């Protein structure tokens, strides 16, 4: 699935301590290279607040490059879009993201981390739900939600936009219910 990613070689997890990895998106402008740091922490370490990202994996292979600990790391298009959108211009953003924080090439690691996902999502300061990139119709639909306007009173493109949002793959995932239920905020 993923090509061998050397970013994990110097960051082994201590599975006996319920360690996880977090990815820190470094500040930058929209056109800057997406630069991140990956590091290990004990789960529920109060000195290290983080957000957890809930999103869907694309069907396409990873093709977008993110610089993690000075190493090129490939991610899928949808995740790349989320990371770019979440990057702040002035301060770092700490996240738990399954495709980056779990070595997808290691069955042992995946098998040890998946049972922790409920704890990971409930330990997160916030859970961020990424439905995908917006477009004209979804932007209109989100504006309508913010205004709490009855959809039947809005233009037809708003209804189309709402349908576009709620038929996104995120809503079809089994994990989303667990992630939503585990989120404190």
Give the termini distance in whole angstroms.
32 Å
Structural class: alpha/beta
Q: What sort of overall outline do the alpha carbons produce when their principal axes are compared?
A: globular
Oligomer: single chain
The helix content, as a percent range, equals 25-40%
Task: Look at the structure and give the mean pLDDT.
Answer: 86
Number of strands: 7
Low-confidence runs: none
Order of helices and strands: EEEEEHEHHHEHHH
Strand content: 15-25%
What characterizes the major β-sheet? 7 strands, mixed
Major sheet: arrangement of strands: 5-4-2-1-6-3-7
Q: Number of helical segments?
A: 7
Question: What can you see in these coordinates?
Answer:
The protein has 185 residues and is of the alpha/beta class. It is built from 7 helices and 7 strands, in the order βββββαβαααβααα. The chain has helices at 77-86, 98-101, 107-113, 117-123, 136-147, 156-166, 175-182; strands spanning 19-25, 35-42, 51-54, 64-68, 71-75, 93-96, 126-129. It starts with 18 loop residues before the first strand and ends with a helix. The model has no long low-confidence stretch (mean pLDDT 86).
